[in-house]
Design goal:
The protein is mainly α. Helix 2 packs across helix 3, helix 3 packs across helix 11 and helix 6 runs antiparallel to helix 10. The chain has one domain. It has 11 helices and no strands.
């Protein structure tokens, strides 16, 4: 899952939300030590969500639908496609507007500035320039983001060409997301309950 989904899934707890944002920028268990406990739990939850997503039935069904040259990068494409579906259907899953949630995320990062990884600062500058997270509703914004990821990858890749295959996959993304997201919400709720029982918090 991408940033917006991680934030949504952890949205009842500010520490888990921060960990959800930091998850892509913190590697290994040793690196967790510098963070407060609830942020550490959020990073672990981020990793758990990513594992569940990669092994989900819906994602496994989507991958073979990609032309061969795109399959290596299908996980990246699906992550952003699912974030777009979440943004488009935000009202189904969250009580407040996406616009309000967007502001709250910026406030949360500002209030915890000392913990923000430098690479995440760079992403948030990009997000501010392009109106993310609300702009994930726009297909062109998602395609632009994918092309940008492709530029940053070391090896040659076709992410700048996703525009050519998107029309054939868009309805599959929608179906896959709507089947998958309620299940990952339930899985996250169970994970949080298990951790609460274990830690006594």
């Amino acid at each position: 899952m991408n940033f917006l989904a991680h934030l949504c899934l952890a949205s009842d707890d500010s520490g888990l939300m921060l960990g959800g944002l930091y998850g892509d920028f913190v590697r290994g268990r040793r690196a967790l030590r510098v963070f407060p406990e609830q942020v550490r739990q959020g990073i672990m939850l981020h990793r758990h969500i990513d594992r569940c997503t990669d092994h989900s039935t819906e994602v496994k069904k989507l991958r073979p639908l990609f032309p061969r040259e795109f399959r290596r990068y299908s996980g990246i494409i699906i992550d952003l496609a699912f974030d777009r579906e979440l943004a488009l259907n935000w009202w189904r899953y969250m009580p407040q507007s996406l616009e309000r949630f967007d502001v709250e995320v910026r406030d949360l990062l500002r209030d915890n500035d000392e913990w923000v990884p430098d690479d995440l600062r760079g992403f948030m500058r990009y997000a501010d320039r392009h109106g993310l997270f609300t702009a994930y509703r726009e297909k062109d914004v998602v395609l632009f983001a994918l092309a940008g990821i492709g530029v940053r990858l070391k090896r040659p890749n076709p992410l700048h060409l996703v525009v050519e295959i998107w029309p054939d996959l868009e309805s599959e993304f929608r179906t896959g997301f709507r089947q998958f997201f309620p299940r990952i919400q339930s899985e996250v709720a169970d994970w949080i309950k298990r951790k609460s029982v274990t830690t006594g918090s």
